[in-house]
């Protein structure tokens, strides 16, 4: 049992959960954008607002780090966690913007599946960060994030292979290849967050 003369800054845990909730909200907005595809510009703007909110939370955590002598866990892990969550959000925002910029008429079934995987991963990450304070019982969450990453990896590989096999419009192929790659990057980045949570948990076991 660790004893400390200086109380740890417990507010960090609330901010991690808030940050993850914001990323999850953006992921759900993106999935909804693709499923309805009735107002992509409006959805993309809402996702952009969530990205700005994420920046505010990150800055808040950064300022607290500067002022806090004893942190709940290693500073580099706090930086890594916040940075990786920011990256997930940035990739969701970029994917949403790309649909608008490329004037995509309708999303493919694969893109919708990829968006759904990101949502499921973000649900697991949010749940893990809600319960991070005890550093216990989180293993099932990161295992599920890894399983979803493998699913996403196979999906993206098959989708890109199909793009070239079907010999469609070259410009269309380039657009979709980029969109699939962006969404695969978001799925991979969710796995990075899970790895950081696993590392933090093991250190405090």
Describe this structure in words.
- The protein has 205 residues and is mainly alpha-helical.
- The chain has a single domain, classed as Methane Monooxygenase Hydroxylase, Chain G, domain 1 (Up-down Bundle).
- The protein is 80% helix and 0% strand.
- It contains six helices and no strands.
- The protein has helices at residues 11-36, 40-67, 75-101, 109-130, 139-165, 170-203.
- The longest helix is centred in the last third of the chain and has 34 residues, at 170-203.
- Mean pLDDT is 92; it is low at 1-7.
Low-confidence stretches: 1-7
Count of discrete structural domains: 1
Distance between the termini: 10 Å
Mean pLDDT: 92
Q: How is the quaternary structure best described? A: single chain
By DSSP (H or I, 4+ residues per run), the number of helices equals 6
Secondary-structure element string: HHHHHH
State the total count of DSSP E strands: 0
Please sum up the structure shown.
This protein has six helices and no strands.
């Amino acid at each position: 049992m660790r004893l400390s003369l200086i109380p740890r800054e417990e507010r960090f845990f609330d901010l991690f959960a808030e940050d993850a909730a914001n990323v999850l909200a953006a992921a759900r907005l993106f999935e909804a954008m693709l499923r309805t595809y009735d107002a992509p510009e409006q959805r993309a703007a809402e996702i952009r607002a969530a990205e700005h909110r994420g920046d505010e939370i990150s800055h808040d955590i950064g300022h607290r780090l500067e002022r806090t002598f004893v942190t709940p866990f290693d500073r580099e892990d706090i930086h890594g966690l916040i940075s990786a969550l920011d990256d997930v959000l940035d990739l969701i925002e970029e994917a949403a913007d790309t649909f608008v910029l490329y004037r995509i008429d309708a999303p493919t079934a694969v893109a919708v599946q990829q968006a759904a995987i990101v949502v499921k991963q973000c649900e697991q990450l949010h749940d893990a960060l809600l319960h991070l304070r005890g550093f216990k019982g989180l293993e099932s969450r990161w295992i599920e994030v890894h399983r979803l990453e493998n699913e996403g990896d196979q999906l993206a590989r098959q989708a890109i292979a199909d793009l070239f096999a079907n010999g469609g419009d070259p410009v269309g192929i380039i657009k979709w290849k980029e969109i699939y790659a962006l969404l695969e990057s978001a799925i991979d980045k969710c796995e990075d967050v899970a790895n950081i949570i696993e590392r933090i948990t093991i250190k405090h076991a």
